[in-house]
Amino acid sequence: MRIAMIGTGYVGLVSGVCFSDFGHQVVCVDKDQRKLERLRAGEVPIFEPGLDTLMARNIADGRLSFTDDLAAAVDGAEAVFIAVGTPTRRGDGHADLSYVYAAAEEIAAALTRPTVVVTKSTVPVGTNREVLRRIRAVRPDLVIDVASNPEFLREGAAIDDFMRPDRVVIGAETERARKVMAEIYRPLSLRDFPMVQTDLESAEMTKYAANAFLATKISFINEIAALCERVGADVKAVARGMGLDKRIGDKFLHAGPGYGGSCFPKDTMALARIGQDHSVPQRITETVIAVNDHTKRRMIDKLIDLCDGSFNGKRIAVLGVTFKPNTDDMREAPALTIVPALIGGGAEVRVTDPQGQREGEHLLPGVRWMANAYDAADGADLLVILTEWNEFRALDLGRLARSMNRAALADLRNIYDRQMAERSGFVAYDSVGREA
Ligand code: UDX
């Protein structure tokens, strides 16, 4: 199959590289010249384990290329994927679709043969039908089909999620679109994955519903965690006891400082707006968003308590600022709420993160970047574990406590426990959902 992928952001790049690895001929299109040069040289602009090797192999084998010439990429393609950004629009919380529609119209003008135009970007219900309408308006002369093919990739595990999906969801309403989509994903069939074939609106809705449900699990357990602290229960035991019930499942029940990232905050917000537009308020999702905001702020109260009531003049070491481990992404990370509160309260903040510094230098002005946890903790009054990177999972707590001015630990990912901390010399310890 010949595939054009419009947009080389996170989703576009991972999808393009993986499709080429299936054996398809893939041309990725982007407008950013510098990015294109880097990509052609095999340089991956994001941190995603395994992506660089896979990309280099497929470039070398001649199946994957990069261009700014959309018309040339689209010419002769059997499927054109739209994987441009759909950021939250300023002011009203709606997904901004201007990039999607601009791409659709540009593609339409360039098409030379019947083609399936597939939307991979997360888009509100109705967008694919509007894409079809706009494409047909530009090209009444050609048979063009559309398909919706939402992605369910986790950052940090995107290659595996793409190659071994729990399911592939495809919204397509013509025989030809269904056939082309089945052919694109056929190389996966050896692994026997379920393909959900449905209409355009259901495919679009599936993506929002899935992400909002996962976000709901997180906000739910975070709220239970707050109650656990009051009643003397341990949220880890509660989550385990709940999760062993197969109807509930044990995933996404880790209490923490709140969810972040490029998907959950944006998609829950967009779903809430879609609900309001159709006079069917999504009350659960609206509450999930509010609970997540509250969870982040609740962490700040914990840190103030550990600093004896004030951040002023304290040195605070923060371990991890990305929204989760194995990514350099800081979008909507709890760190963006918590770290400015520390600085605003008069603390001197030292930060370490295995991948977060490049983005963090712009997003967290006023912090000092340290090489590792031990350097960050030296002389500090509080140590905060904010992201559960592997390298923070087996720290020498004794060494950290000895080097600190006042050995207090805020373990916001529940990696350690009070006993371990106190045995290692910490004089104060707090975590999430385990004790007041
Ligand atoms: C998510 C979805 O998992 C993916 O299917 C979707 O299409 C894109 O959004 P991603 O944003 O990469 O993927 O991260 P994910 O691993 O889902 O974690 C999201 C956030 O939830 C992180 O901030 C993480 O720390 C938090 N989280 C996750 C919890 O706080 N507790 C949990 O139990 C799980």
UniProtKB/TrEMBL annotation:
Tagged with keyword Signal: no
Species of origin: Paracoccus pacificus
Protein name: UDP-glucose 6-dehydrogenase
Reaction equation(s) it catalyzes: UDP-alpha-D-glucose + 2 NAD(+) + H2O = UDP-alpha-D-glucuronate + 2 NADH + 3 H(+)
Domain named UDP-glucose/GDP-mannose dehydrogenase C-terminal: residues: 317-418
E.C. number: 1.1.1.22
Matching InterPro entries: 6-PGluconate_DH-like_C_sf, NAD(P)-bd_dom_sf, UDP-Glc/GDP-Man, UDP-Glc/GDP-Man_DH_C, UDP-Glc/GDP-Man_DH_C_sf, UDP-Glc/GDP-Man_DH_dimer, UDP-Glc/GDP-Man_DH_N, UDPglc_DH_bac
Record bears the keyword ATP-binding: no
Cross-referenced SMART domains: UDPG_MGDP_dh_C
Top-level taxon in the UniProt lineage: Bacteria
The family this protein is said to belong to: Belongs to the UDP-glucose/GDP-mannose dehydrogenase family.
GO molecular function terms noted in the UniProt entry: oxidoreductase activity
Swiss-Prot/TrEMBL keywords: NAD, Oxidoreductase
Pathway linked to the protein: Nucleotide-sugar biosynthesis; UDP-alpha-D-glucuronate biosynthesis; UDP-alpha-D-glucuronate from UDP-alpha-D-glucose: step 1/1
